[in-house]
TrEMBL record:
SUPFAM superfamilies cross-referenced by the UniProt entry: Galactose-binding domain-like (SSF49785)
Coiled coil: none
Gene3D superfamilies linked: Galactose-binding domain-like
Name the UniProt record assigns to this protein: Glycoside hydrolase
InterPro entries cross-referenced by the UniProt entry: Galactose-bd-like_sf (IPR008979), Ulvan_degrading_GH (IPR053161)
Length: 791
């Protein structure tokens, strides 16, 4: 990892990935391994984070029914006119009868007005009345969810995230011994909580008391409103689910944060999912993290970056590459780069890569693989030649995007109140997902028009909102809470314009339709950084002495960009993220970006000198068509480019093309792979969150170039142009191109699949390998174009 330029690790303990019995989770042997890992990281100058527990979302064998996640369940029964007593014993151990109600009419025709019935022990007393009538009964009990992806010995229920006692019990049972084993604050940079996936958890024994304290009335008589989406219950549902958010923040997030600080380390969290976490809940964290990509939508990375920007936390990370070009070993360096750019466009400047599966050298090729992630490890065939260039690139990009302050003119008010009011007990109470869906096309319209935005809510500091944003947009809102109204009134009093899209809320706001939003915005504040291209995104950071713009082509085809900046400039520089070299210019910024290429533009009001970019090829080219091929499975042979070697043999590794050429002065400067004649690959039918770069690929998949025996560089991403002039000489020159494929052909072997089948038989179905059938898609490697030497 260190040799590849990776700066740290996050230790994650998950399910067994081999049939043999693994070390028991939490045993002394296990803790000794944790200790060794932390010391090894410290000795190499690496950051060391650790997840507080196995799998997610917090739980395990130490969690009893008292501390396990709980939910409400509703059951209906239609009865006649006579009075009766109905016995309702719990179906599952630990179930508790909460309340019962009755309504006129049969199910589906019943009145929305329910009357509460008397409970006598585990029975419901039903008075006489009309016929038919519908009885609704609410019980509480365990969700039944077990810890996801649990290690051997960690199996058990998921934690009740609404209970302070449950949270402390988990931290004392798992957090304390693991942190101690890892060397505490001496070795551990941060403890980590992954995304919240506590499905259907909407109850805790303390919920009635918590609700009474926060809302001022008893929720039990009105709980039936959680069963039905009828509008008459909207106010109660908003109160109830808002209370869940608050209780989760106070009894889980804040407790974990305090515990981490008391132990001298930091708390890093992915604060979204279920329980219904709010953006402002990130205030209970030292380090903020998101995940997922999609710069024209509202991924969790945007959710997290918005919180970081408002809370003054400059470094914001993202769980990256979790579902990249599956299955695991199929991901190429270009895929990693393309997805990383998308995260940066969402405000991310720190990549937490998923992941590096622990894999002994003597296991079946290509080694163990996590059920998700891109198998970022030295078991990948391209690792030797491309890992250092890839991670140097990402390191440089992360570093430069931490300078200055992020600029976002627009604050989008999150429609929590509508989301809460429309939740029902059967659905996933995911505040990020449901609220983001209510925003419709507004995020995409803003980004493609040259505006950037942050997501905001009433729990954030109004002064910071007014300092950072010029306009607040309300969209997807038909109702606002008391806190919303108070915060928005304060924002408006500071002169910030509030635009209400397709809503008659807030009389003081400017009301308009989504189709009129951009034209109205332009009359208030011009676009900040407009590329003029729907597939090219930009992020702006304001420096002390200039402006910095990250501009990325998210398309598989070359694209022209004309960067129009609102902040005037006299000169500019375009920085090459690969090597830090730059070109200078004055006046308008026009340039060409290769597929998935990004550049940093830095503008200044100081005068500058214009210079031509040193990477522009010109003059006649020298095609290199004839090569000798050294392939491990074949005899040395003479071939002509374009040339492809067969991946159907399940070969994993490298083959070397060598050519000797006589050169006379002046010498060429660049070795160039022309992709213009290659078709752009079609997108495969992978899951939506799986990122795959679809640019034309002249290789399969990376190539190290040696000129006269010296390492000259690596081809791994567009524009596939390598400066080699300093390695050439007058007369004879030997050019070698060592092409490496991915390790995915080895996943086709019967032995590899056998490992997973035997593992499942030995330990149960704890995971499903992601889209393993895609390992059988045709792959190709070789020199798929004619390399050219150019000046």
């Amino acid at each position: 990892m260190v040799k590849a330029g990776i700066g740290g690790v996050e230790l994650s303990c998950v399910y067994p990935i081999a049939p043999k019995q693994p070390v028991a989770y939490g045993s002394q042997h296990f803790l000794d391994l944790v200790s060794y890992a932390s010391r090894a990281a410290q000795a190499r100058g690496m950051r060391f984070d650790m997840t507080i527990g196995s799998g997610w979302s917090f739980g395990g064998s130490h969690v009893t029914s008292e501390h396990a996640a709980k939910r409400l369940r509703f059951e209906t029964r239609v009865v006649g006119p006579h009075s009766q007593t109905i016995s309702l014993p719990g179906r599952w151990p630990g179930d508790c009868l909460i309340a019962a109600w009755i309504s006129d009419g049969a199910l589906g025709e019943h009145s929305p007005a329910f009357q509460r019935l008397e409970l006598v022990g585990d029975s419901v007393s039903v008075p006489s009345g009309g016929s038919p009538r519908t009885i609704l009964v609410a019980t509480s009990g365990l969700t039944g969810q077990q810890l996801k992806r649990a290690s051997n010995g960690a199996e058990g229920p998921t934690l009740d995230h609404y209970s302070r006692e449950a949270t402390m019990h988990h931290l004392e049972s798992v957090g304390d011994p693991f942190l101690k084993a890892a060397g505490g604050s001496k070795n551990v940079t941060a403890v980590f909580c992954d995304s919240l996936e506590v499905y259907h958890s909407d109850w805790s024994p303390n919920m009635v008391q918590e609700f009474k304290i926060r809302r001022g009335y008893d929720p039990v008589p009105l709980l039936y409103h959680l069963w039905s989406p009828h509008p008459s219950g909207a106010l109660f549902r908003a109160d109830y689910y808002r209370t869940l958010s608050e209780v989760y923040e106070d009894n889980f997030l804040a407790v974990c944060h305090t515990w981490a600080r008391q132990h001298g380390t930091k708390f890093r969290v992915q604060n979204y999912g279920q329980p219904p976490a709010r953006i402002s809940g990130f205030r209970h964290a030292d380090m903020i993290e998101g995940e997922s990509w999609g710069w024209l939508t509202v991924p969790q990375s945007r959710w997290a970056a918005s919180a970081a920007h408002h809370l003054g936390i400059n470094v914001v990370s993202s769980e990256t590459w979790t579902w990249i070009n599956s299955p695991s070993f199929k991901a190429r360096p270009l895929d990693f780069k393309g997805e990383a750019h998308d995260h940066v466009l969402c405000g991310i400047n720190h990549f937490i890569g998923h992941g590096w599966p622990s894999s002994p050298t003597n296991v079946v090729s290509p080694g163990w693989a996590f059920y998700a992630s891109g198998a970022i490890s030295d078991r990948n065939a391209w690792w030797k030649d491309a890992s250092r260039p890839l991670f140097s690139y990402l390191h440089r990009l992360s570093e430069v995007m931490r300078h200055g302050e992020p600029v976002a003119d627009i604050g989008i008010w999150m429609p929590y109140e509508d989301t809460y009011a429309n939740f029902t007990h059967e659905e996933e109470h995911n505040l990020w997902r449901s609220s983001s869906m209510r925003l419709g096309e507004v995020p995409r319209l803003l980004r493609q028009a040259g505006y950037d935005y942050d997501l905001i809510d009433a729990g954030l500091d109004v002064a910071v909102i007014c300092q950072r944003h010029k306009v607040v947009v309300l969209t997807g809102c038909t109702r606002l809470s008391k806190d919303d109204l108070e915060a928005l009134a304060n924002i408006a009093s500071q002169g910030i314009k509030i635009l209400a899209v397709d809503s008659d809320l807030l009389p003081s706001a400017i009301h308009l339709s989504a189709s009129d939003l951009i034209s109205k915005l332009r009359s208030i504040v011009p676009p900040d950084a407009h590329t003029g291209h729907p597939g090219i995104g930009a992020v702006h950071r304001r420096l002390a002495d200039g402006e910095l713009y990250f501009v990325a082509n998210t398309l598989p085809t070359p694209s022209s960009v004309s960067l129009q900046t609102r902040t005037p400039h006299s000169s500019w520089q375009r920085w090459n993220i690969h090597d830090g070299l730059f070109e200078s210019g004055t006046g308008p910024i026009h340039s060409q970006l290769a597929p998935y290429e990004a550049a940093i533009y830095v503008t200044s009001q100081k005068d500058g000198n214009e210079s031509k970019g040193s990477t522009q090829s010109s003059g006649p080219s020298i095609p290199l068509e004839r090569w000798s091929l050294e392939h491990p499975l074949h005899d040395l042979q003479e071939v002509f480019a374009p040339h492809q070697w067969d991946d159907s043999e399940d070969f994993v590794g490298s083959a070397t093309y060598t050519s000797t050429i006589q050169l006379a002065a002046p010498l060429p400067s660049y070795l160039y792979l022309d992709t213009s004649k290659l078709p752009t690959p079609k997108r495969s039918a992978r899951r939506d969150q799986s990122f795959e770069a679809h640019a034309a690929d002249p290789l399969g998949v990376v190539a190290a170039v040696l000129i006269n025996g010296q390492e000259a560089g690596t081809f791994w991403d567009p524009p596939y142009q390598l400066e080699i002039g300093r390695f050439l000489q007058t007369g004879a020159n030997t050019i070698a191109i060592r092409v490496s494929n991915t390790s995915v052909p080895a996943m086709r072997s019967g032995d590899w699949r056998k490992i997973w089948e035997e593992t499942e038989r030995a330990h149960g179905r704890r995971f499903i390998m992601q889209e393993i059938d895609y390992a059988y898609e045709p792959t190709r490697s070789g020199l798929l174009v004619i390399p050219e030497l150019r000046r």
